[in-house]
Amino acid sequence: MAMLDIIAHKRDGCTLSTTEIHKFITGVVNHTIPDYQTAALLMAIYLKGMTTQEQTTLTKEMMESGDRLDLSAIPGIKVDKHSTGGVGDKVSLPLAAMVAACGVPVPMISGRGLGHTGGTLDKLEAIPGFKVDLTEAAFIDQVQKIGLAIVGATGSVAPADKEIYALRDVTATVGSIPLIASSIMSKKIASGTDALVIDVKTGAGAFMQTEADARKLAKALVSIGQQAGLQCMAVISDMNQPLGNKVGNTLEIEETLDALKSQGPADLMELVNTLGAQMLVLGHQAPDLATARERLETALTSGRALAKFREMIEAQGGDGRVVEDYSLMPHAKHHLTYRAKQSGVVTKLLADEVGKAAMVLGGGRQKADDALNYGVGIELLKKIGDPVSQGEALLIIHHDQTGLDAATALLDDAIELGETASAPTLIHETIN
Predict the structure, then answer these.
(1) CATH code, domain carrying 215
(2) Taking Cα atoms as reference points, which of 59, 41, 282 lies closest to residue 178?
(3) GO cellular-component terms in the record (predicted)?
């Protein structure tokens, strides 16, 4: 069976057999299939989709392409969280620390940025010395000792996904439901966690721009997880405008630390508490969601969550002093204030355009091997529904001159002022 035939089969809208999917994944892992053929099949899947059975088979083959972590040595119910990606979405960082501070072990395997969306690992690497690549033994040992670790997938966990993930980013195939579902669930099932909470984004800055597509993806993820014996639920949340007020790697670590000091933006904290409450209930550390929220708030106000985040930083080789001294992280040399061209109310603040603006400044990757500028980004001073006067500051562009004109043009398209608007609903739906 030639790879060319498999590509043609999917191109023509046919259902791939288990044998065909197995050959594809095996070839990816063994590097017997060239990248251009892998990219061709990814595009065919993006355009033609997959049946439920194909999707399940793809997930299983990707999971079985490597090892499955054994986390049984870690006491308690291990709970992880995953987001389908957004702009300004630093939720995993304060969330993991707060949940771990409440006694739920959080062995979190995260990813890097895809297109205009940021990656948790990229943000953490803005902290001097922070290591996201741990051995399996070190990962398990750290969660045993402090209840928390945030790392990239090791080479032995779903290695097929690592190869495919990088190509999706640069072949415009990120938004495929089968590819997203198999990528997320192959890693999460293989990571050995007991329960999983998934944040599925919908809106202008999400890969699932319509609520119907977001619901379809959420149901696919939950179904795959439950078939694998994983306690699994999903929340559909809004990504029509950036989450929080800061977009960019260092900037989002700063906002994470502000959040852990009880100074986080309201939308960020609402989503953190919504997901965190579900994690505490799944982890049997709260009998219901209301009690779980109270426990999360106590973890913040007592300082335990901030201390837990610092403990994780230092355990993974990072400089814990950043908790108090943000200047230790990389910062842009220049700041440009972007001002309103007229008076009115912010009626549009497109998350994808803001994300692209941060990317062209150097804060994200346009190619898989692009180096990041951790200090650049966008700081939002107004959001949808906020009134603004002509000449008033709407946002601050943190830049090192590269890409400034392109970023400004993108922001011109992202922002619209009108007569009236209200902030979008943050939590759309919960899927159990």
Answers:
(1) 3.40.1030.10
(2) 59
(3) cytosol
Q: Amino acid letter at 87?
A: V
Strands laid side by side in the 79-83 sheet: 79-83, 195-202, 231-238, 427-431
User: For position 26, which CATH number holds?
Assistant: 1.20.970.10
Could you tell me if residue 335 is inside a domain? yes
* Residues 139-198: tens digit of each pLDDT: 999 999 999 999 987 768 889 988 998 898 789 998 889 998 998 899 899 989 999 999
Is the same domain home to 268 and 383? Answer: no
Helix (H) or strand (E) segment spanning residue 148: strand 148-152
pLDDT for 323-381, tens place per residue?
Answer: 999 999 999 999 999 999 999 999 999 999 999 999 999 999 877 678 899 999 999 99
As a whole number, mean pLDDT of residues 38-65 equals 94
Residues annotated catalytic, as ranges? 82, 161, 168, 183, 187
Q: Determine the Cα angle at 267 with ends 329 and 202, to 5°.
A: 100
Distance CA 391, CA 101 (A): 44
Q: Report the alpha-carbon distance of residue 108 to residue 5 in Å, rounded.
A: 38
Q: Are 205 and 239 in contact (CB under 8 A)?
A: yes
Rg for the chain, CA atoms, rounded: 21
pLDDT tens-digit map of 78-125: 999 999 889 999 999 999 999 999 999 999 988 887 667 778 999 999
